[in-house]
Every structure is written in C-alpha cells, then in structure tokens.
Amino acid sequence: MPAIALTTIVAVAGYAVIFLIAARTTGVTTPFSRLLPLALLAILAMVLPSIAGWGPREGATAWVFAAAGLGADRGAAVDLRQQRAVAAPPYSLRDLRDDLARVLGARVVGGDDDEVR
C-alpha cells in the first residue's frame, strides 16, 4: 500500500507541476500558491469519464479559473496547453523545456539539441 500511495503522490505532483508551467506559458501571472488549488481541482476532474477526449477536466479548469476571477478563457487555454504537454511526449518535452526556460527567465540557445542558459 505505501508504494501505491507514493506513486500516486508523485503522479499528482507531476501533473501539478506541468499545470503550473502551462499556466505561466499561457500568460497567467497569478502566484503559484493561488494556482495550486486550481490545479488540484482540475486534476481531480480527470478521474471523470470523457467523450472523445473532451470532458470534465476542460470544463472544470475553465470553471475554477472563472470562479477564481482569472477568466474561463484562461482556464481553457491552460488546460489545452497541459494536454499538449502530457499527450505528445516526444514533441512536447522540448516545448516543456522551452516553456520552463521562459518561466525561469533563461534562454534557449541552438537547434534541436539546444542548451538552456
């Protein structure tokens, strides 16, 4: 049982980090401490069934962003960015690195084998 709990915590933390990076790269400047509860609510909505890949998570993210005064459009944009990062790993790992570099104020140098400085 402890291994399952630890695995679950690591998975939720990973999704939360990707959500926070997605929020920053879509222009949300709200502090992470205010975004984290929104991320956890969006992650909670992931357990509900969806139809053709669209479902409760998209609606929940838009709703929690609207309820927090950040705008439903921003919530939907963050959710779509997060989906892109999670659903297409070979392409999105480079994008995620670039997004993280932008969030941290670093710059990416070079081509496909870029370095972050």
Which residues form runs of ≥5 with pLDDT under 50? none
Report Rg: 15 Å
Shape: globular
Count of helix runs: 5
Query: For the terminal residues, how far apart are their CA atoms?
Result: 41 Å
Structural class of the helices, strands and pairings? Answer: mainly alpha
Query: Which sheet architecture does the biggest sheet show?
Result: 2 strands, antiparallel
Output the strand order for the largest sheet: 1-2
Instruction: Spell out the helices and strands N to C.
Output: HHHHHEE
- Total count of domains: 1
The level of helicity is over 70%
Mean pLDDT: 80
Number of strands: 2
Strand residues, percent: under 5%
Give a written overview of the molecule.
This protein has 117 residues and is mainly alpha-helical. It has one domain. 70% of the residues lie in helices and 3% in strands. It has helices spanning 2-25, 32-45, 56-67, 72-87, 89-104, and strands spanning 108-109, 115-116. A two-stranded antiparallel ribbon has the order 1-2. The radius of gyration is 15 Å and the shape is globular. 22% of the residues are buried.
Structural features:
two-stranded antiparallel ribbon, 5 helices, 117 residues, mainly alpha
Summarize the structure.
By secondary structure, the protein is mainly alpha-helical. The chain has 5 helices and 2 strands. The chain is globular.
